[in-house]
Records
---
Amino acid sequence: MAAIQALALSVLAFTPVAVRADPSPAAGVSLNPAPLERVVGTPPAARSAEAGQDLAILLWLQQVRTPEIVSSSWTLLERNPTAFSRALGVDMVRTTPRLNAALKAFLKPVDGIKDQIKDRVNRPRPFVSHPQIIPCLPLEASASFPSGHSTWYRAASELLADLLPERRSRLLELGRHGGNSRVLCGMHYPSDVEAGQRLGVAAANQLIQSPQWRAFKADPAVQVELDQVRKVPASALPVLVH
C-alpha cells in the first residue's frame, strides 16, 4: 500500500498544470444597442417609392453585371479580416496574427446587435419577395435588413483605419465594397446595405472608445505588427476594386 501511495504522489507531482490562456483583448467589451438601432432605422415601406427604387436598382444591376463583378463578389463571401490583406499590402495571417485574431473578437458583439435587428425587422430577402431576382452568390435564409456583410466589413474597415490612418482611404474603399457586392449579386436591397454601413460606423465608434480597444491599440506587440504594415511602400499596394 505504501508503494502505491508513493507512486500516486509521484504522478501527481509531475502532472502538468493547465495554464490559463491569455484572455481575448475584447473580453468584457459591450455595445449600447439603443443608439445603434436608431441609426439603422427601418427599411422602406412595402410598395413605397423607395421600395420600388430598391427593386429597380437590383433589376438593372442584374442586367449589367459581368463575370468579373461576380468573381469579385465571391472573394468577399466570407467575413474574414484577411480580406483586408489587399488594402494593407501584407498577408494578415503571417504578418499581423494578433490583429487578425483581435478583429474577429471585437466584431462579435457587432454581429450580435445586427442579428437582433434582423430578427426584429424580419425583412425578406429580395429573391424571396421578387422571383425575378436571380442571385449570383449562395442563397441565405436569414432576414435582409440590415446587411450583415455591409455591417461587418464597414465596422472592420473603421477599426483598421483607427489603427492605420495612413491606409484609411483604401480600408474604407474595401469596407464599402464588402457591402456593395451584396447588391451587385442580388442578395440585398441597396437600403439594406446603406443601413449596414450606418450600423458598422456607429458600432465601430463605440468599440474605438472602449477601454479594451484602447488597451489593444497600445499593446507594444500590436504596434510591432502595425509597423510591419507601414513599411510596405504605397507603390507596392495592389489595386483593390476594378
---
Amino acid sequence: MYVAVKGGEKAISAAHERLGRERRGDPSIPELRLDQLVGQLRLAVDRVMAEGSLYDRELAALAIKQAQGDLPEAVFLVRAYRTTLPRFGASDPVDTSAMRVLRRISATWKDLPGGQLLGATFDYTHRLLDRVLAETRAGSDLAADAPAPAPQAASEDTPVGPLPRALDALVAEGLLERPEADPDAKCRDITRHPLELPADTPADRGVRLQALARADEGFLLGMAYSTQRGFGAVHPFTGELRRGLVELSFHSEELGFSVVIGEVELTECETVSSYTGTARPPCFTRGYGLVFGNNERKALSMAITDRALRARELDEPLVGPAQNPEFVLLHGDNVDASGFVQHIKLPHYVDFQADLSLIRGLRAKRRNKDNDHATD
C-alpha cells in the first residue's frame, strides 16, 4: 500500500538530502570526529554498543553521529550492520571473577575484601550545571589554566584485581542461593533463533538474560522501578556492582586450545533480595545483570528485572508486569518497539479509507434505524 504514493521517490530523496544538511549543522563549525564522541560522550556510545549487541565503540559513535544523537535510531543502525557480519564461532564464557576492576561497590557490606573502589561516578555529584564546560572554543579551552585534579586511587589506567566476590560470604554461610548454572548447558542464541514463550523456567534464564542485555534501558528502568514501587515486591540490595576489563578467549579447533583475542569492558551487577515464596527455605535470592561498557543503570535495572522474572520459579504471587516474561521479553527491544510505533507515520491510506467507509456505513445504518423509529 506504500508503493502507490505518486511522486514519493523524489520527495523521499529530497528529505534525505535535507536530513544530511541538518545532521551537518552550521558548516562554519568544525564537524564532530568519532574520537571526540568516543572520548567525550562515552556513556551514550556504550549504551548504543550494548543495545546494538556489537562491541565496537567506533561503529557505535558513527551510528550516533549519523542518527544525530537519536540513540534508538543509532541502535537500529548498529543492529542492521551486525546482521551483515560473518559469524565464525562463539567465544568461551567470560570469567568476570578475573575482571581487572575499574569501579566496584557494594551496598550490603561496608568493608569488602579488596575494598570498595569508588571510581568515576555521578552518584555523589550535586547535579548542578557546570558552566565551565560551556567555556570552550574550537581547538582551545578557556579553562586551561584551572588547577589539575588531584590524583585518584583508581583510574582508567590503573585497574585493580582480580577481586573476590562480595557475596561469597553469604553463599558460604548458606544464606544466599548458589548459582545453578550448568557449564555444559547449551543456551539458545536469540539473535539466531526466535524467542519461545513462556520462557519462565529456570532453564530459560539464559534466554531471558540475553533479551534483557540488549533491551532498551528506559524500558528496563521502568520495569525495575515498578517492582520497587509494589508491582512485583522486589526491593533488593546491591550486593556488588563492578565495572572493568575482562579477557575474551576463543577456542580454536585448528590449534586445539583457547586463545585470548582481546579485552572487553563490562558492567556487572548482582542484587540480593528476600522473597515470600515457598520454593526453598528462607534465604536471600539473586538478580543478575551484565552489560557491555559503562552501563550501571542498565545493569542494575537488568538485575532487578531478572529477579522479578523468577517469580514463578520461586513460587511467588504474580502481581506486576515485570514478573511476566511474555510482557517483558516481547516489549523490551527498542528496535522492535521503535519500528512498530513509528511505522504508523508511514502511509496507511487504504487502511484508513476502509475504516472510514465502515464508520460511515454504520452511521448511515443508525440514522435509517432512528428514522424508522420516528416514523412509527
---
Amino acid sequence: MASNTRSKLSPEERAAAREHAGNPIWFKPVMLGFMIVGLLWIIVYYVAGGTYPVPSLGAWNLLIGFGVAFIGFLMTTRWK
C-alpha cells in the first residue's frame, strides 16, 4: 500500500513548502515586461510630443506608463 506524503503534511507545512518553492517560470518575464512596457509608454509619449500612445488622454499617458511600470516593481517584492 503506497502512502501519499503530501496527504501527511499539515496545511501549515504545505503553505510553508509553497512559500519556499520559488516563482513559476512565467513570473520573471511578466515582471520585466511590465517594467519595460511602462518605460516604453512614457518614452513614446515624450518623443511623440503627446500624439502617441493615446492622444485623447494627454498627460494621463504618464500616469498609465508609471502605473504599468509600478505593477512590475510591485511584483519584485514577490520574486524569489
